[in-house]
Write a structure and sequence with these properties.
Strands 1-2 form a two-stranded antiparallel sheet. The chain has 22 helices and two strands. 59% of the residues lie in helices and 2% in strands.
């Protein structure tokens, strides 16, 4: 629970580290719950709830990334009244069902979002007396100090020296409130881009555990050559382009794990080529992203971005999901496999021996009396993978 409120939760379905936009959403709903729990900062709380509501309301119910299980939650939180009372359970539910959706924060500058996350963690740490508060404070002080050093040459930084001076004043920190921290967030977030590049680790560090250990965030992307986009932004832009083609026959077949022919593959390649010529980034940057995601074929690459249709996957695993001879752990394993397939667009056979599938033991232990099921799973996964190739 504590790691959720500090914006460090992993995706419960896939075990993958959550993206920066997801971490921000988690931290914001976590802060909202903490403000409700401690009955603090009512005006700031209302503004935060308004912002979260606007983000949820901006997502179309028919968007390709809205899974069937998400829709009920999204419908509920498109209403402003649903945000009036958020407790721990609701915060986790919001994280599971809305955090991965294309919220409007995805379009904001990377450096500003990372600074937002630092301040959100500070605010939560202040409310729950978290052990990482001192380390986070030091990071803000380092950033303020680095910005002070360039304030004489950058007018925009010079105009906001008062915020930097406040962050560097030990007395200010003595009685700091969540509202004070919010003022600093708003005043400094647009300046972080001016922190000298060699000193930006203060922005990209993430608290790893409850003891406050600091480590370089593995998700911090390097800037792609020839473009101002970061991979996380590029992925989102590509998803938006692909959403425009959601009803194309080739896209429907790809997401339904149906066999593709040469014409389908050509159509999918044309969509990516179109994205490469447009606002989603250059062809070279898309190729770079493909390499980072494993060097897949174009259809497999697209499916990693948009996932598989849940109904189609459930249909392919219907006999296993309804198998009355399976015990509870075996059913949970199959349900998790379905969820990961839907979210990631595919699962390699060797991955079912790794996290998150080993939470209750290895697949061999879970199906110790049904080894034929493991062989069957391999065939099903390979068959799904093969549908991302032309026949």
């Amino acid at each position: 629970m504590d790691e959720f409120y500090r914006g460090e939760a992993r995706d419960s379905a896939t075990g993958r580290p959550r993206s920066l936009s997801e971490k921000l959403f988690d931290a914001r709903v976590g802060l909202l719950a903490q403000l409700d729990k401690h009955a603090k900062a009512p005006e700031m709380r209302a503004g935060l709830a308004d912002s979260l509501h606007a983000s949820a309301a901006s997502v179309p119910l028919g968007h390709i990334m809205v899974r069937p299980g998400d829709k009920e939650i999204l419908v509920r939180y498109r209403e402003r009244s649903a945000w009036n009372d958020v407790d721990e359970e609701k915060a986790e539910q919001l994280s599971r069902h809305l955090g991965h959706l294309p919220l409007n924060t995805m379009k904001e500058p990377e450096t500003a979002k990372r600074f937002d996350l630092v301040i959100l963690k500070l605010q939560v740490g202040l409310l729950d007396h978290g052990p990482e508060f001192a380390a986070l404070r030091q990071r803000v002080e380092r950033m303020a100090n680095d910005l002070m050093a360039v304030s004489s040459t950058i007018p925009m930084v010079a105009e906001r020296r008062s915020f930097l001076e406040r962050a560097l004043d030990p007395e200010w920190w003595t009685n700091v409130t969540v509202e004070d921290l919010e003022t600093i967030r708003i005043g400094m977030r647009s300046l972080i881009q001016f922190v000298p590049k060699g000193k930006r680790n203060a922005v990209t560090l993430d608290i790893q555990d409850e003891m406050g250990e600091l480590t370089i965030d593995d998700e911090m992307p390097s800037q792609l050559p020839g473009t101002g986009s970061y991979p996380s932004q590029l992925e989102q832009q590509l998803r938006e382009v692909l959403q425009e083609h959601a009803n194309d026959l080739a896209m429907i077949k790809l997401r339904s794990a149906r066999t593709l022919n040469a014409e389908d593959v050509a159509a999918l390649e044309a969509v990516v080529a179109q994205a490469g010529r447009g606002s989603a980034g250059s062809t070279e940057s898309i190729d770079k992203l493909r390499e980072r995601m494993g060097g897949d074929s174009i259809p497999a690459f697209i499916r990693r971005l948009v996932g598989l249709d849940e109904a189609a996957v459930r249909e392919q695993f219907a006999d296993l999901l309804s198998n009355t001879s399976f015990n509870a752990a075996q059913i949970r394993f199959i349900k998790m496999l379905v969820d990961v397939l839907v979210h990631n667009g595919g699962v390699a056979y060797e991955e079912i021996f790794q996290p998150p599938f080993d939470e209750e033991g290895s697949v061999v232990d879970i199906f110790h009396n049904k080894t034929d099921v493991i062989v069957d799973l391999r065939k099903r996964l390979e068959r799904i993978e093969a549908t991302a190739q032309a026949t």
